[in-house]
Each structure stands twice: as C-alpha cells, then as structure tokens.
Amino acid sequence: MGEDPNAWNNKHGHLQYDKSMAKTVMTNDINQFRQVGMTEHNSTEVLIIDIGNTRAKWAVVENQTVGRRGVMPTDDLLATLPEILEESDAPVSWSCVIPDLADLLSNALLKSGRQAWRLTCHDAPGLSFTTYPKPEQIGHDRIANAIGAQALVGSPAAVIDIGTAMTFDLVTMQYGFIGGIIAPGLAMMTDYLQEKVSLLPELPPENLTLGPRIGRSTIEAMSVGCTRGYLGMIQTLLEGVREEFSELGEDEPTVILTGGATRGFIREALSEYRAEPDLTLLGLAEAQLRRLASSKSG
Ligand SMILES: Nc1ncnc2c1ncn2[C@@H]1O[C@H](COP(=O)(O)OP(=O)(O)OP(=O)(O)O)[C@@H](O)[C@H]1O
Ligand SMILES: CC(C)(CO)[C@@H](O)C(=O)NCCC(=O)O
Ligand SMILES: [K+]
C-alpha cells in the first residue's frame, strides 16, 4: 500500500520530471541524474551498500554524486564492513538479496551503532506496489533500480539490469512498480554451457563480440548463441513490455540499462538506450533522501 509516486512528488515537491531535459542533457550521468529529478538537499551524504549474489558494492554518495567507492566478492562483505563504515559517518542505506547474509549484516550494523536503513518494499518511499500481489518477494536491488529510474527519468521506465541474473524492473505512472522479468545473467549462460557440455570450452562473457551469424567453429557457434541469442531474448522481452505498457494506457517506457547491460556487445547493440552503471546505488541514495525529506516535512 505504498503511495502513488506522483502524489508523493506533489506532496514533497521533489522529482519534478522534465522529459525534454532528460532527452537533451547528455553530458554526465550524475549531472543528468541531478538535473532531471534527484531530490535536492543540502549536502546530504549517504553511505550505500548494495549486496548482490556475486559482488557487493559500497559508495559514498553526496549531493547525488558518487564519491569514494569499492566493490568486492559478496563473500568478503562482512569481513570488510568495519573498513567500509570508516569511509563515512553518514547514515547507511543498504540492500541485500541474500536473506541469511542480510540478517548477519543487519545485526552487524545494529552493533556498530550506525544509523542504517534497509531498503524493502515496506520502506520504499515514493514507490508503490498497488497491483503487485506479493511485493515482499521482490529483490531489493530491483526496488532500488525502480526508485533510481523514477528519479533519473521519471515513470514510465523499464530498467534492464544484468548481474548474476538479468532483471527487468518496470515502473508505471499509474501503479508504480508493476512487475518485471527474471532471466539468466550472461555468465550463467556461458558458464553453464561450458560446465554441462564436456566438449565446450570456456567463454568469458567480457570477451564476447557480435561476430558472424553462423558459427564455423565450436567457440564461434557458442558465441553466436550467447550474443545474438541473448540479444534476441532481450528484444523479445522488451517488445512484450512495450505492448503491456500500451495496453495499460501508459506512455512508452524510457529504457535504462545497468550492470552488465552497460558494457560490451549488449551496450553496443542497445546503444539507443541510456546506460547508468550506478543506477542501483543512486536508487538507494534517493530512497534515503526521500526518507529524510518526509521526516522533515513531518
Ligand atoms: N561485455 C559484457 N557484456 C555484457 N555483460 C557482461 C559483459 N561483461 C560482463 N558481463 C556480465 O555482467 C555481469 C556483471 O554485472 P554487474 O557488475 O552488475 O553484476 P555483479 O555485481 O557481478 O552481479 P550481482 O549484482 O548479481 O552480484 C556478469 O554476470 C557478466 O557476465
Ligand atoms: C533476481 C535477483 C537475483 C537479481 O539480483 C534478485 O533481485 C532476487 O533475488 N530477487 C528475488 C526474486 C524477485 O525479485 O522476485
Ligand atoms: K546487481
């Protein structure tokens, strides 16, 4: 029963979205973020921690600009936490998609005495889930992406995030987060082929380029499957999303790429769309700014 994002914007006076600006300001991703809709505050520093299945990222975000930052294997997060907390005294805004680790981190943060907010569907200011039957199922990184998209380009928006898994996170004008798509991440495809088929070699995803349409060697044949095949999946999924938005009476969603979708052949093939590598972090920062704004406005 979250609030309608537009009602929230009107009430709190933030996130005024200007479509013409979003299309013309193309200089610097962070400036863009600030100019089109980030909540304005006086020097508000936030310490962000975003924990995915493979890697954990931290960043100090001040005035919607990412400063010091780091990334590590998710398994190293707890051991690294004291060092991360020394990077900034600011409140922590975090998300974690591994429930056991989230419990451990929650306790560690409590012990540290730091003010910390975990992004969940129950505390996702400005994002509603009115038509989503069980919002508590949604990965919190996806909630961060949705809030980041609202702030960056406004709704409707479609985020394509490739990490361990690929997700589409879809935000409408009328209903907030309406749902999305979960599919294998690119490495799941390449690694799994190699792991399960004894005659297939290793194919690091970062080495993939768009080559021929027909493979004339084993590695080439795999490469076609994992590049053109993967892109075909994305395009088909996006087509379905567009149709559904149209049926809902929504405008055409602005597509934002993040994670692995901002790199390599995927980025190249989808160059018409905006890429924001820090979307999840910025969404976590925005969530914290909105909490502060609503606590101030009472
Ligand atoms: N050139 C490339 N083109 C497309 N995808 C790539 C490329 N290089 C790496 N990737 C994929 O992007 C993913 C890495 O993206 P990202 O850094 O967002 O995820 P992660 O932090 O590893 O995952 P998670 O957030 O799930 O822990 C990997 O799965 C990798 O396979
Ligand atoms: C899909 C991932 C793995 C993407 O990181 C994460 O968001 C997650 O574990 N989600 C839970 C299932 C859901 O989002 O519906
Ligand atoms: K991620």
From TrEMBL:
**Positions annotated to bind K(+):** 161
**Example of a GO biological process term:** coenzyme A biosynthetic process
- EC category name: transferase
Q: Which GO terms describe its molecular function?
A: ATP binding; metal ion binding; pantothenate kinase activity
Could you tell me what reaction this enzyme catalyses?
(R)-pantothenate + ATP = (R)-4'-phosphopantothenate + ADP + H(+)
Q: Which residues bind substrate?
A: 132, 139-142, 218
Which cofactors, by name?
Answer: NH4(+); K(+)
Main subcellular localisation: cytoplasm
Record EC number: 2.7.1.33
Sites binding ATP sit at 50-57, 164
**Pathway involvement of the protein, from the record:** Cofactor biosynthesis; coenzyme A biosynthesis; CoA from (R)-pantothenate: step 1/5
Q: How is the cofactor bound?
A: A monovalent cation. Ammonium or potassium.
Where, by residue number, is the active site? 141
Q: Give TM segment ranges.
A: none
Keywords for this protein: ATP-binding, Coenzyme A biosynthesis, Cytoplasm, Kinase, Metal-binding, Nucleotide-binding, Potassium, Transferase
Q: Where in the cell is it found?
A: Cytoplasm
Entry annotated with the keyword Metal-binding? yes
Query: What is this protein's function per UniProt?
Result: Catalyzes the phosphorylation of pantothenate (Pan), the first step in CoA biosynthesis.
The UniProt entry's sequence similarity note says: Belongs to the type III pantothenate kinase family.
**Assembly with partners or alone:** Homodimer.
Protein name, please? Answer: Type III pantothenate kinase
Query: What organism does this protein naturally occur in?
Result: Rubellicoccus peritrichatus
